[in-house]
Amino acid sequence: MLPELTEEEIAWSILTGQVCCAGLTHDNREIRCWYGKDSFTLHRHGGPAIEYGNGDRFWFVNGKSHREDGPAIEYANGCRGWALNDKFMPEKEYWLSLEKIREQNGTS
Questions:
Q1: Element counts in the chain: helices (H) and strands (E)
Q2: Following CA atoms 78, 53, 32, 12 in sequence, which dihedral angle do they give, to the nearest 10 degrees?
Q3: Three-point CA angle 33, 36, 42, nearest 5°
Q4: Range of the domain at 91
Q5: Does the residue 74 lie in any domain?
Q6: pTM: predicted TM-score of the whole model, two decimal places
């Protein structure tokens, strides 16, 4: 079961203009999705854009599978997927790519 949104999550969505929708999928699974306010593409900073009641979680930024602090996909069974800007890669390549991006941006 999905937990209730915290006051911090609600405040963050108001501050950033992100929209949260919750409900059930066609096969009756709980789901919560976050969208960009103007684009209605999957989008969330600081957390997964899709959360299922069984614990599966998926990170998206501007409609692309993307996460800069861990796997972009986390299944409840422990399987994980690593992605930057919709490009999936092995974990080792992910960390190397992220390091290069941070060096280019001067944030390493």
A1: 2, 9
A2: -70
A3: 45
A4: 7-103
A5: yes
A6: 0.81
